[in-house]
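Structural prep section.
Before we set up the soaks we want a predicted structure of the protein with beta-D-glucopyranose in place, mainly to decide which crystallisation condition to try first. Input record follows.
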Amino acid sequence: MSFFARFTGPTTSTFFAVAVMTASVCVAGHAQAKTDTSKMPWMNKALSPDQRADMVAQQMTLDEKIQMVHGTGWGVLRAGDPVPAKSNFAAGYMEGIERLGIPGIDLADSAVGARMAAYQARYATLLPSTLGAASSWDPDSAFLYGSVIGRELRAWGTNMSIGGGVNITREPRNGRNFEYAGEDPILAGTLTGNLEKGVLAQHVMSDIKHYALNDQETGRTVVNVLLDKKAMRESDLLAFEVSIGIAEPSAVMCSYNLVEGDHACENDYLLNEVLKKDFKFKGWVVSDWGATHSTVKSALNGLDQEMPGDENYFNAPLKKAVEGGQVPEARLNDMVHRILRSMFAAGVVDDPPIRSVVDPFRGRDDAQHIAEESIVLLKNADHILPLKSSAANSIAIIGSHADVGVLSGGGSAQVDAPGGNAANPKPGGSGWTEHVYFPSSPLKNIQAHSPQASVRYADGMDTAAAVSLAKSSAIAIVFVNQPMQEDMDAVTIALPGNQNALVDAVAAANPNTIVVIENGGPVSMPWIDHVKGVVEMWYPGIGGAQALANILFGNVNPSGKLPVTFAKDDAQLPNPVVPGLAGLPATETTQYHKVAPFDLRYTEGAKVGYKYFEATRKQPLFPFGFGLSYTTYAYSGLTVDDAQRTVHFTVRNTGPHEGTEIAQVYVSLPAAANENYKRLSAWQRVKLAPGESKEVTLPLHPLSLTVFNTDQDGWQLLAGDYIVTAGPSSSDNPLKATLHVHP
Ligand code: BGC
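Run finished without errors. Recording the tokens verbatim:
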């Protein structure tokens, strides 16, 4: 069956037929057999993961080694395919080597929470999108995010998460931006690295993906991305470098696309040169599902494991290639070593998961906490927010199923909603292109915060009814949405359907209109001047409505700042039309398999997002790093320590509320760098009581100060003067100082 049949073939009911057929086998398979480890010296925890891996590998037969470097097939992902007895219903499964005490690996999709819950009659917490969570700029929150995923996978009996998306937002219409962490490589890499640490701390293996330059879904399997090495290293690859430096993830998933002529999963430069040599990555490279295209070339160029496995490049053909000498056995040993050492390092051999009941309450609280840090207040004219319960005696809630729930992102990141899709309940799991709402009701939570008010709902499908409700209410809150998912990009950053017209109509009817946005990536706001408030809540997760209500009523002071630039319209973007999309009928959306192979040269180079806007002197709708608060902050006293490469400044809360300010530091490199843009270099969340001041000392991120020198094939620190600025966003830099770097 062809690869894309996976997305068009299985219906929910066939999925479930498979589940029923295989469940009993799996349960039996999971009865935990006691292994006699007395004759297994590699079970000695005092040895290093590398020593232990070598000891195991020495005992393995060629067949066992081959078994380890490929999966067992599409399994649960493709209706009718066999599901291995010992697998735990994850997207991929590697059979273990029982006689040596090595468990199988369940590679579970879990970008924003564990996938396939309905299939297994389990529960999974839906977290805010990782893009939303990146608005917190909070490494601790990212760690918590990973902990929730690790904790729940462990309870499911699963030992590996394949979330960890860190592709930077080069294409704001990319359908998967919600699974990633924004446009800045250092911010995205730092947050994803901490997320990975959170997963690993639960003794669950982690991966980061999709390596590399898989920055759009349109034509994702046929697009050949062209970008010079310097730009690559300073942008997309830097996000992976930072993340790997923080977390040592167990695996890196190579992507579907081609880079400079070679598929990412058989790309010597990406895998051998950069990932394994320069980044010193010790884990294994796993292919995206169906992204392996060869045996010998892939093996020699750095791929370590083929998933899901039944394309059979790394099964019998690899064995033949090893026997025939086209692939040295040492290379196969290296693949196996990387997998085994990552298993030992993460603790999945010493401390395997024990099936337990997921704690949905703890998950919801964690999700709400992350959402409260993720929501970004974009506009607050006349201090319309926070809502004063006394003034808001009648509130109109309009659109986006805000009576019942909040939107989630789709594709392989889709988490199944408890009770089914709140907007369209039915038995079973979520369909591939379904817009799934989670039962966290904005209407109910707003009503709970404002018990004396009349809070009424209009679905927004009938503009006249929405207008009439808005007219008879003191406040109108319009919920707008942008559903996004793997496998297709948005055609435009404009909100889909008639939502812009709806906002305009409501705003014309009610001067106190607030817009709440549920989106996968940046959207345009042609109505921005006509509304009083704009609240960016992304896909906010299972605690989303509670978090939103806390923000709207001021129980929580918003602190999130945008991890992506919001352009005014598509014309401002480096590519006004999604590359590869031109010529497809607009109604076709952008299914990747409908596009013929094409080259995509990213002419903006390393200037992604705010760097591009600054370099081209374009004014976006909202800049990177922007976000308002119910209080105000003042910055003063920036000094720079040339020797330590640290900055020091003071932030003061000058307003009436306690709040947390995300203070940001940017650097502009000396003239020799030939760059006409700033780079994010450091940031800190600073919590301040009204009137309080705090001094902040921050190290400048070393990789924000260096350029990639392709002749020397390494990072280079240029001598000269670096302009350092500090302030509340990429476009508001009240403080300035100079860092002197001497040769
Ligand atoms: C996606 C991966 C995912 C895999 C398994 C692929 O289509 O690109 O992110 O992990 O499927 O579901």
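Observations: Residues 1-32 have pLDDT under 50 and may be disordered.
Flagged for discussion at group meeting.
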